[in-house]
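lol so apparently i was supposed to do this last week
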Amino acid sequence: MTTDDGDEPLVCAEGLATHYTTADGILDRLLGRGETVRAVDGVDLELHAGETVGLVGESGCGKTTLGRTLVGLLEPAAGSVTYRGTDLTACSRGALRELRSEIQYVFQDPLSSLNPQLTVAESIGEALAVHDVVPPARRDERVWELLETVGLQADYATRYPHELSGGQRQRIGIARALAVEPEVLICDEPVSALDGSVQAGILNLLADLQDQFGLSYLLITHDLSVVEHLADRVAVMYLGRFVETGTTAEVFATPSHPYTEALLSAIPEPDPRWDGDRVVLEGAAPSPTDIPPGCPFHTRCPRVLPPAASDLGDDEFRAVMALRTRLSDADADAGLAALLPRGDDHTADPAALRDAYDIPRQLSDPDADDALADALEAAADGNLEATRTRLASAFETPCETTEPVLTPGSASHPIACHRFDDRFTGDTDAAESGTRSTDK
Ligand SMILES: Nc1ncnc2c1ncn2[C@@H]1O[C@H](COP(=O)(O)OP(=O)(O)OP(=O)(O)O)[C@@H](O)[C@H]1O
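anyway here it is w/ adenosine-5'-triphosphate bound
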């Protein structure tokens, strides 16, 4: 995600990918056993001086992995991270050490990131010593200053983490990050482990520190209301990729990717400006070891595009897609048997599958209905492969064949969705203006 203000970004990631392997142990790795977890899968991001970018998405979409890669805790599999134009993935160890102090990480759970054996002064002092920020004789004084900066009195210096509340521990985590005088903080769910009123205190502290020191934040959170209050820009992440980015005002006023719509509509007290329908996503996100082809969101997308040649309505096509997704599961055989109970005559009724997936008994497009009827007959005969093939040939969507790219709907609000691509909608105006081509 980029801005068009012409400023050189502080942090810039290009084509960034970070993978894990599920292989256990060296032998598995040598033998190539295990699968690749594509946790971050090609992300471009710019963070400018003094701004806050909110990174949002469901659990497991890759937010923490991206944050840790930016700060150098994880090695990227591809792409680059630059800080003030210097490539962090290609510079010497010494230079890297210097530069890395400019980007600090604030962890979600300060209890696990603070050493329980160290007092607050020792924890913060350790950060001061590692980066040689102040002479040893000045360290205590600097610790007291940092405590004051994060709203704690100097006598907290002698306490241990277990003697502090959650909010106080988070303040120490922030003081520790500030000790090395960074320009950028990656704040990973900084308040999600805290109670409501304590959360507000930490969020206000982050806002005050930004004003005071001109800090830039990457704010990782699954809580969109936090982002709405603090972030200048937002990146919405799904299965390791950005699906929509833009200024916070744009993304909240006109959320355009169906995934963003679903996330926004799930905020407990919907934004007063949000006038769309509640969008409920079915099922969990697919595994990043097996990212669906085309648009990674198509298996859950409430607005998946029907094939160009069909006259199907969105809802009926979505229902057929839900059935196709279920039948592509590894355990689809067992699922089919459960959904197609056999009667006394040992035959199964294909209509039971339509009912189970809210597919109308008669689709609005007669050709599509014939194809579906054939496929369901094959399912009733227990022929899963024939069912899949028939459904795939009649109901293939561009969303499963073509990967959408994050292209400008408007220059500052790009969206990776075929609904904004006139090749698939025939709606040139929608593609150019970035407005939705169908009603909410
Ligand atoms: N060390 C690891 N080894 C293998 N897979 C991992 C590892 N760490 C994370 N993953 C996987 O990578 C994907 C992205 O995880 P990540 O923690 O970055 O997501 P997240 O959006 O930050 O989620 P959460 O909000 O739950 O922290 C997930 O599928 C996760 O299971």
